[in-house]
Amino acid sequence: MDFPVQVNIQKDVTCPICLDLLTIPLSLDCGHSFCQACITAKSKESGALQGGESNCPVCQCKYQFWNLRPNQPLANIVKKVRENVSPQQKNLCKHHGEKLLIFCKEDEKAICQHCAQSVEHRGHQIFFMEKVVMECQEKLQAALKKLRKEQPKMEELEADIREEKASWKNHMQTERQRILKGFNEIRATLDSEEKRVLQKLEEDEVNVLDNLVVARDQLARQKQCLRELISDIEHQIWGSSADTVQDMIYVMKRSESWTLKKPNIVSKKLKSTFLIPDLCGMLQVFKELTEVQRYWVDVILKPVNAISNIALSADKRQVTAVHNFSLKNIFLCDFSAFDVLGCQYFSSGKYYWEVDVSEKIAWILGVYSKVRNLKRKGSSGFVFDPNVNRPDVYSRYTPQFGYWVIGLQNGSEYKVFEESSTSDPKVLTLFMPVPPCRVGVFLDCEARIVSFFNVTNHGSVIYKFSNCQFSRTTCPYFNPWNCQRPITLCTPTS
């Protein structure tokens, strides 16, 4: 097709509003056609969409929007024109047939020199296409350089995500196995306890039945003796004579001496009644312990005094008393020599640690916070005065002096040292149904709480200090007393 002819055809299939090839052409009664989007927008501006009239943008003839009709033959011509445009013609102005040598910045499209001088582009910023192409290439090069720098980062992040995904899978698998193992152990414990209780019940049943058999045999023998005695008495009644007086007297004595011996009555009450454990309560206690164990901190020990009666292990996780004091003089020594603190100081947050005291018969554990403006002699521990009464020994281990602790003495006496409004220390004795081999200590700085858990007894709470008046910092406190067995800090994986 000749170019002049194609230009004329393009004019016929060009929208008078957008000056581009028609898209979904709609025609008016006057014969002019427009893009569907263009004439719809024009009709909306004039109010024709609400049922009013509007004017044709070309000839000003009046029309109603609902009278617009699709023009499929014209749409087919537009399609063929689009298909027949050559690559060279694509770079020519569709209105003037000239090369597109200029770029309009406002409209962001290439135009020819005639278009640049038209009213449509008057006042717009226009540039030669070579300059625009060069600037675009420079920007693209810069963008390419920047994006290529991001590629290694993306690959690294992808590798990190893959590694994190694999790590989480392994962690979840390990956690799943740990959970399954834990519940299997609980089931095994329940099965073992069920077997033990049922075996005990069976033993009780055998004993009861054996006792009943013995009672039955005793009663049968008495019954036989009673029959024989009745028979002898009847025989003497009906066949008595002067010759049988001696026999009659003998039978009478037998009847007088005979008494019914009742067999031992077996109590229907079982010797030992099985109490179903409060599993919900146990699980709630275990849940509380599991919750605080999330805040497990790796504590390392350090002695308070330069001259100390303790020995620390190489990893600073175990402390042992090295001086051998007799237990009868336990209250006459300077226990500050056994003071041990954790290296970490806490001023905010939540912290938890566990201590193994399984071999000890005396210890003190808890939290220490230096008290301000406290006139004290000696070290940060307390010094015993041989002249004071024995209960006064505990006065240094109260919250007034910065200690929130519990302790064990003499192997079975568990004590807690509470705050007292008088000069006499308030020492409480704790009942411990299961002696703790491991003690958990939980510190909540914001809530001002110090809690102690018996990890050995499913994490039951030993004691809780509330409304603790900490100073600026607190730290873990340990005291092995004079018991030469070690206190050992447990690791989170132990």
Automatic annotation (TrEMBL):
TM region(s), chain numbering: none
Q: Does the keyword Aminoacyl-tRNA synthetase apply?
A: no
What SMART domains does UniProt report for this protein, alphabetically? BBOX, RING, SPRY
Show where the B box-type domain sits. Answer: 88-129
Q: Where in the cell is it found?
A: Cytoplasm
Q: Kindly give the CDD domains that the UniProt entry links to this protein.
A: RING-HC_TRIM5-like_C-IV (cd16591)
- Start and end of every RING-type domain? 15-60
Record GO cellular component, one term: cytoplasm
Write out the entry's keywords from A to Z: Coiled coil, Cytoplasm, Metal-binding, Zinc, Zinc-finger
Molecular function (Gene Ontology), one example: zinc ion binding
One Pfam family recorded for the sequence: zf-B_box
Q: Which residues form the B30.2/SPRY domain?
A: 278-494
Per the record, the domain of life is Eukaryota
Coiled coil (UniProt feature) = 137-164, 198-236
What is the designated name of this protein?
A: E3 ubiquitin-protein ligase TRIM22 isoform X1
Look up and give the organism this protein is from. Answer: Neomonachus schauinslandi (Hawaiian monk seal)
What is the name of the gene encoding this protein? TRIM22
